[in-house]
Known about the structure:
292 residues; alpha/beta; 2 domains; D-Maltodextrin-Binding Protein, domain 2; 42% helix; 11 helices; single chain; signal
Amino acid sequence: MMKNLFLLRSQVLLLLVVSLVGMSGAALAQDSEEPFVFAVSAMASPATTFSHFSEFRDYLATKLQRPVVMKQRRTYAEINELLKNNDISMAFTCTGGFLDGRHSFGLEALAAPIVHGEARYQSFIIVSQDDPATSLLELQDRVFAFTDPLSLTGRLYPTAKVNAAGYSTADFFKKTFYTASHDKSIAAVANGIADGAAVDSLIYKALMNVPESIAHKVKVIEVSEYFGMPPIVVSPVLSKKEKLTLLKILLNMESDPDGKRVLKDLDYNGFTLSDPSMYHSALLLTKQITEE
């Protein structure tokens, strides 16, 4: 039911976008051969991320009728710095990174992917299969892995929970460290480097679908509330026409044979317009954090 609502919404939005910008990518197909540059954050390890998004890069270049360059950065803060300095025009980032950028320099969410019929996800708290802990707060005085300082699911959710219990993460955990990606956090717990970690539910579920994945060595002991899917964000200096052109391309992918192939490789059903209400629960969570 939810999937059908998202698809219907995307189709209505597509008709609106097409009427505003026409059927080509001419708004971004400039006279020069200056490339359109976008970035992808380290949701998974760099090699995996590049492999998944290289087809999207090529698809976008065809639709925009100009060269497209994809950049990767290790942290969400680096992605935001590129957007703030207008070094890139668009990025796939995390919800926490988007909220930070929106507050700092007016970063805008353009669209959000639909995965398995939904445009929402959760933070999973994980431990090894034989660990007796049944909740995050039972991991006091133990080693915990975060993914990135701005990651909603990989740091902000567990930090808010620990702060709400009256502790800073430095006082609550024996030790914390950053892995820079969700799959590496899962591996850290599976290999005994960390006692627990907070990870993106989408990446955890994807790895659990791989029979020989190391993810089978860990288990979920706590889940967060639902949050709006990590958005595709755009530089605030892009014109309205340029944003609408990009939105049209994203929303139209599910009805285009080549677009469908790229979406399948990304494990997306399609894209939907980013509604500000999608990120309300995440914003409320960040306001509960009392530490830097």
